[in-house]
Task: structure prediction
Amino acid sequence: AMLRLRLLTWDVKDTLLRLRQPLGQSYAAEARAHGIRVQPETLGRSFREAYGAQSQRFPNYGRGQGLSSQQWWVDVVKQTFRLSGVHEEGILTLMAENLYRDFCSARNWEVLPGADETLSRCCQRGFHMGVISNFDNRLENVLTQCNLRHHFEFVLTSEDVGFAKPDGRIFEKALRLGGVAPEQAAHVGDDYTRDYRAARAVGMHGFLLRAAGQGEEPEVPPEHVLPTLGHLLARIER
Result:
């Protein structure tokens, strides 16, 4: 039976866009520009530690605790370098500000294979389209720079809305903006908990983008799994 969908919502990171290179490599290149040698692997490990601690202490970019997302990220970048053995405050600040700016552009992000074509075909079929992403307020600019923004009627970030996936309220806001009932909407994303299960919990349909061989959650029927984005329209129109 063909799903009677009117609205498609999309996750961004690792669904439509991905980092061009591992984050540690971008950080190491920035350090090299200041004459500092740090291994990318060390920076990658330090970043995961710094990001995890900051996320626990100040969830959703510190939005409820008076931080700006820029300050939140600058602190994460500085702590990443400190954990990797770099302690010169002036250079830490400079590197953090440069990296914050670089991750705001197409310089560090690339469009996943098939994403642009799939979004275009969905627009041509007349679906309303929106983004639901646990991203900070740089996302509009990132999508514009990567030439994807025009596909979407709205872009909801957790920073703007004040709730992060899997919180149902960010999905409910999307449904209000799209003017549709949950059963007329589907969310597409790569994360089982934050995308697939969270969308289904508010009554939306869910499609889980998952390359072959990734973890197999038993609750996901095969017709809800997308080996590639190119499979989406066939799943909707089955």
Observations:
- The mean pLDDT is 95.
